[in-house]
Amino acid sequence: MNKIMLGNEAIARGAYEAGVNVATGYPGTPSTEIMQFLSQHKEIYAEWSVNEKVAMDAAIGASLGGVRTLVTMKHAGFNVATDPFYPICFMGINGGLVLVCSDDVGAVSSPTEQDTRIYAKLFHIPMLEPSDSQEAKDFTALAFELSERFDTPVFLRTTNGVSHSMGIVQMGSRQEKRKDPFDKTSPKFRPQGGVHPTIMHKNTHERLTALEAFSNETELNRIEWGDKRVGIISSGSPYQYVKEILPEASFLKLGLTYPLPKALIKDFAAQVEDLYVIEDLEPFLEEQIKSMGIELKGQDLRPNVGALSTEILSECLTDALAVFGKKIPERRPPLPNVIMRFPTLCAGCLHLATYYAIRRVQRKTKEKDVVIMGDIGCYSLGIAAPHNMLSCAFAMGSGIGSAHGLSHAVQGNGDKTIVTYLGDSTFLHAGMPALLNAVYNQSNITVIIADNRTTAMTGGQEHAGTGVTLQGNQYSPVQIPEIVKSLGVQSIHEVDPFDYKETFNALKNAFEYRGVSVVIGTRACRMFPDKIKEEPYKVLLDSCNGCGMCFSIYCPGIIVSEEKTDKGKNKAAIDPFVCTGCSFCVQICPVDAIILE
Ligand code: SF4
Ligand code: SF4
Questions:
Q1: pLDDT in tens, 475-484
Q2: What residue ranges define each of the domains in the chain, with the CATH number in brackets?
Q3: What ligand is nearest to the CA atom of residue 590?
Q4: Ligand 2 in contact with 166 (CB < 6 A)?
């Protein structure tokens, strides 16, 4: 049966058909949907782990237990998971173990852009890169075969171009596969006491040699002969783009991109006149092929940041187009009447209310310079205008640690209040050890935990504080205030961010506290897991004096009225379709001009 599938759905299907029993992961664009599709199969145990390292630990344990195991994450998450992944790449596996890591090329929803392919070389493991949904399914299933055949984890790398594209996929049936149960007496997984790490290292080099021989033979790497005046080596979604603009050329399409099929590449390069290597981001293929003494054109022609497209590549490959009498196609004109907008927080979002309260405290305590170290989540939008609230954001949970470091750097400078701001999922991901460190090392910071009861940025996934697992099991959720207390924090304020006065007072007291203070603001996200749309409010234009206080909440529901005051000031209005009825602006208006419809 055929079905049109998102690349991520196809990966989940491939894992299902390959007989995967356990799947772990942490949400992150563009990988999130893989786990959501996998969780629908009753034959598979699937979980959102609390972070990528724990997901990797759990996946390794499941592989040792003899079952086929998939672990998923985005590029930034892989950086978190590398610690346990490195040794298992050298020790080998039991049940097939496949890592799917999706790179957010173009940093559509990430603080960084990263080419994770480089890890394949560092970790000495095979890497597969599908170019479409069918390959995403087929390569995933094949990855488990390779994992067990070569006794290695296999890295399936995708990008937004594959994970978030749709294509026709031919589906197959599920095969049940199980290896022997874990042998606790085996020396294989016991470095030093079992197999010495240098022996493991030697074994991985031998494994790479065997994999390279496979790479030269497998149909994963295939030559598509066309006109030999132009030869193109490519993989992943860039292959699709070049194939579309230069279908006449000869192609070496690489599906197994580490280790490279050197003999096949030499053979292909020897038969074409001009050789191009087209890939996105770093010159990963290019540098390896150049090191074989092969001349080629590559990153000197193409951009090495951001996502490629047929339009971008057409402009880069003018010489190759000219060989076939082609010119650069005209760029599509920009769509008319499209207004450029900043990304914004949703109407009635707890972050808008909390940011407003922080700004008011800052105004009231002018002698203190408040520095807010940010973190990763919806609230990262607070870095941008109009909020300009956060001074930085690095990685999940790193706000507390960096605030702690900054507080020690400015020690003795009583003019500074060091604050950090993070969400519930991020706190449970990597914030807890950092908070413990801040308490242990006597920091002087305020930690604001904005608990919206979900992992909102990636689409509302469950986490340990929600009381629901990925597969819908109910349990008693962990309580963030209790965790904070148990980590040794003495000054804890629990507030409702929609209660302006309560939040203002809590923040003010927390900022004045010497030591580690924590403010926990709890209000459900207005979008996930269910949309919250209460009765909208409206502005009584006769009462509004145009003071502008409500505008500075930056709620998208509050708009400029067509009416002005006698002094020419803009009056406010509320868009009833956007307002979610949170009531926060009602508390801000000094003349009670905001009421329920
Ligand atoms: S009540 Fe006010 S602040 Fe809340 S969503 Fe509506 S317009 Fe925005
Ligand atoms: S805060 Fe009240 S008075 Fe001021 S602009 Fe808004 S609605 Fe008008």
A1: 899 999 999 9
A2: 2-217 (3.40.50.970), 222-323 (3.40.50.920), 350-522 (3.40.50.970), 537-596 (3.30.70.20)
A3: 2
A4: no
